[in-house]
Amino acid sequence: MRKLFGLVASTALVCGLAACSSEPEAPVEVAPEAPDGISVSDGRVNLPAVSGNPAALYFTISNDGSADQMMRAIHVPGSESTQFHETVQWPNEISMQELLQVNVPAGESVTFEPGGMHVMVFGLPESLEPGGELEVTLSFVRGDKVSFPVHLLAPGDDGSSMEMGE
Ligand SMILES: [Cu+2]
Questions:
Q1: Is residue 163 part of a domain?
Q2: Is residue 162 part of a domain?
């Protein structure tokens, strides 16, 4: 499965940089191999204010299928690594901890947003600029995958000024 992921990930990288970039935005953001009923919207990433810091990636995933879907990893082309994080609030401090997998229950949606769950993206190329787009790929414990676009935003931009979704 790890081997398969690497194969698909490198395919996505090629796709993200070249083949798919000239196509218009697809109305349905789901690859053919996506788990039944899974769709993703509002994909966006805030680029780091300080070069070299991790970026924060957000999205909403909906599961209209009849089975729970457990997210296991997310691949962001060009990055060194990614982690699912949740924000933990203590009385006097806010910190983050890593989630090894995140469930999307059947019939429900899960939102990654500032102050909540998010994806930390480490080692993104410094050449990326707000206004661009990347194609990222989520993988699930059963081996299914779904790719979707994320808009590149300036640090702290909540994306409300951009048109998201269809
Ligand atoms: Cu984090």
A1: no
A2: no
Return residues with CB closer than 5 A to ligand 1 (ion): 85, 96, 120
Residue, of 27 and 108, whose pLDDT is higher? 108
Burial class (CB in 10 A: 0-12, 13-18, 19+), 78: middle
- Ligand 1 centroid to residue 30 C-alpha, Å: 25
| C-alpha 62 to ligand 1 mean position (Å) | 22
Q: What pLDDT, on a 0 to 100 scale, did the predictor assign at position 115?
A: 92
CATH number, position 22: 2.60.40.1890
Find the farthest-apart pair of alpha carbons in the chain and give their distance in angstroms, rounded.
Answer: 49
Q: What is the whole-number distance in angstroms between the Cα of residue 33 and the centre of ligand 1? A: 28
Q: Supply the pTM of this predicted model.
A: 0.77
Strand ranges in 10-51 using DSSP code E only, listed in sequence order: 38-46
Hey, CA dihedral for 13, 97, 40, 54, is it positive or negative? negative
